[in-house]
Design brief:
- The complex is a heterodimer of chains A (about 270) and B (about 250).
- Chain A starts with a strand and ends with a helix.
- With about 270 residues, chain A is mainly alpha-helical.
- The relative contact order of chain A is 0.13.
- Chain A is globular, with a radius of gyration of 20 Å.
- Chain A has twelve helices and one strand; from the N terminus they run E-H-H-H-H-H-H-H-H-H-H-H-H.
- In chain A, about 75% of the residues lie in helices and about 0% in strands.
- The longest helix of chain A has about 30 residues.
- Helices cover about 30% and strands about 30% of the residues of chain B.
- Chain B has seven helices and ten strands.
- In chain B, the strands form two sheets. Chain B has a six-stranded mixed β-sheet, sandwiched between helices.
- In chain B, a hairpin with a 2-residue loop joins strand 2 and strand 3.
- The radius of gyration of chain B is 20 Å and the shape is globular.
- The chains are: A mainly alpha (about 270), B alpha/beta (about 250).
Chain lengths: ~270, ~250
């Protein structure tokens, strides 16, 4: 099996790497525009557009804050900010995973009739989630204005947190998109687990309140770290270095998995969808 | 030099199917007749032998129509050349950039307007920025869609859809153009324009592969024919002789 196209026969590794990175960045820019068009089209006939998702978040956070403060006996005012940021980050993570499972299946038309790079479809999904996420900033601004959420220099640390979150989004979407295109049973399983993950992850309950012998459900939960590197700086705490170390490892391992999946499944993708 | 070279290429398409494990026994492909010369089982997966031992050499200026019955492997061959399907064995080598216009309705975003779709294509396929206005003008002229280009694509008729898709596919003069029934739609006037546009391409010494059941269309646009039957190439050469082989074969 061989497929050759016109390309310089020999290229050194650095030039290869430079081209690889340049192409990925270029494709990211293209897929951002694509995702933007998708968002515009989807909400064309809606008055407030993606802000409906933001209203969703607000309704969710009010309800969950009420429940959470009732169960854990904490002051509603103290917990609203915590829950709000938790839900915003969680909804981005959940959307990345669930968009990811459908990423290639939804682009069947392109996959079976064009030779566009697959990272365009991946980027399309990731940036769609990012655009929605960006609308949720409004909730944060509201929180700051009302005084539920503190603001300070530490808050800026949330920016690398958000970046890390979406950088990881690319490998998550790539991996799930390939596997779910090939094995159609994975998608319902993932959706199922996602629901469970919402309750297991400290999104609307404070992890400091759980019994120390059960701490493992937080410690071994990768999603928790992604929420914390955004949430704690926004609440005025500097996240411990260990959080960043965990995420660094997850990023490296994740990209290795995505690369392997790509290498094995990319040639046959048109057969899957 | 633009060329397409296929050497002893076989394409086997797996048909994935989850057997059992379902409470309701849905009709499954598990019972499909296998062991014939077009399908077999490989580790439990049904495999269609879509193309068998294809050898093909195309060079600049070749305009080839693919003829054959439904399921003879025309679309598969186009997908193979485009690089969408990998060869199972054999080699595929291309010199030049291939562009496929498959399935007639290119994946246009139906909620976006004609102009937005043009913009999207320009972005995805890296059309040169400085010539963008020119390309748009060209598409406007060719499609004659006028005001419709500002409306969402979902309100277009099939013919209008085909016009826009064809204009987009041919906007950038790819080296190797692959068309699959794409211009079957559209009225006589459009057919004529489409042919002119393709002639322009070919005059710039490119390669075109066209799969169509319309003999008139093939005759107007192509000079050579490749006759496929059950995945095998049974004739490659002059178009008129190709028609004879095809007629005699069926």
């Amino acid at each position: 099996m061989a497929l050759t196209t016109s390309s310089p026969a020999t290229q050194t590794f650095p030039t290869y790497l430079a081209r690889l990175v340049r192409d990925r960045l270029h494709n990211s820019w293209k897929s951002l525009q694509w995702a933007w068009l998708d968002t515009v089209c989807q909400y064309r006939r809606s008055r407030i557009g993606p802000l409906w998702e933001t209203i969703n978040v607000i309704v969710m956070l009010l309800g969950l804050s009420l429940v959470s403060s009732a169960i854990f006996g904490s002051n509603l005012r103290d917990i609203v900010g915590y829950v709000a940021i938790g839900i915003i980050v969680w909804s981005a993570i959940a959307a990345l995973i669930s968009e990811g499972t459908m990423s290639f299946v939804r682009n069947t038309g392109y996959v079976t009739s064009s030779t566009l790079d697959v990272d365009l479809y991946v980027g399309r999904s990731v940036f769609k989630v990012f655009i929605t996420f960006a609308h949720h900033v409004l909730v944060y601004v509201l929180g700051v204005a009302i005084g539920f959420v503190p603001i300070g220099w530490t808050s800026l640390l949330a920016i690398p947190g958000i970046l890390l979150l979406f950088i990881n989004g690319f490998w998550v979407v790539t991996t799930f998109a390939f596997i779910c295109a090939r094995f159609r049973d994975i998608d319902p399983i993932v959706r199922n687990l996602l629901q469970l993950a919402f309750f297991v992850t400290p999104v609307f309950w404070n992890y400091k309140a759980i019994a120390s012998d059960r701490m493992f459900i937080v410690d071994y939960n990768i999603i928790f770290y992604f929420i914390e590197i955004v949430r704690s700086p926004l609440l005025g705490e500097i996240p411990p270095l260990s959080h960043y170390l965990v995420i660094g490892c997850v990023t490296v391992v994740g990209y290795l998995i995505a690369w392997q999946t790509y290498r094995r499944m990319r040639p046959r993708l048109a057969f899957f969808v | 030099m633009t060329h397409v070279r296929l050497r002893n290429v076989n394409v086997r398409i797996p048909v994935y199917d989850a057997q059992a494990l379902r409470l309701l026994r849905l009709p499954s492909f598990g019972q499909a007749k296998v062991g014939t010369n077009t399908a077999s089982r490989d580790h439990g997966v049904l495999v269609m032998h879509a193309l068998k031992n294809i050898d093909l050499d195309l060079s600049e200026g070749d305009r080839v129509c693919l003829i054959g019955h439904n399921g003879a492997g025309k679309t598969t061959l186009l997908r193979l050349v485009a690089g969408i399907y990998p060869p199972d064995t054999g080699t595929v080598s291309l010199q030049g950039e291939a562009f496929a216009l498959l399935g007639g309705t290119m994946a246009l975003n139906s909620d976006a307007t004609g102009y937005e779709n043009i913009r999207l294509m320009a972005t995805l396929y890296d059309w040169p920025q400085d010539a963008y206005a020119e390309s748009v003008k060209d598409i406007e002229d060719f499609t004659e869609l006028g005001e419709y280009l500002s409306l969402p694509v979902r309100v277009y008729s099939a013919g209008m859809h085909a016009r826009l898709a064809f204009a987009l596919a041919t906007a950038q003069a790819p080296d190797i153009l692959l068309i699959d029934e794409g211009i079957g739609a559209g009225d006589a006037h459009f057919q004529e324009k489409a042919q002119q546009r393709v002639q322009q391409f070919v005059s710039r010494a490119r390669i075109m592969l066209l799969a169509s059941h319309s003999i008139a269309l093939c005759r107007a646009m192509c000079t050579k024919a490749l006759v496929l039957s059950k995945g095998e190439a049974i004739f490659f050469g002059d178009i008129e002789e190709g028609f004879k082989v095809y007629a005699g074969h069926s």
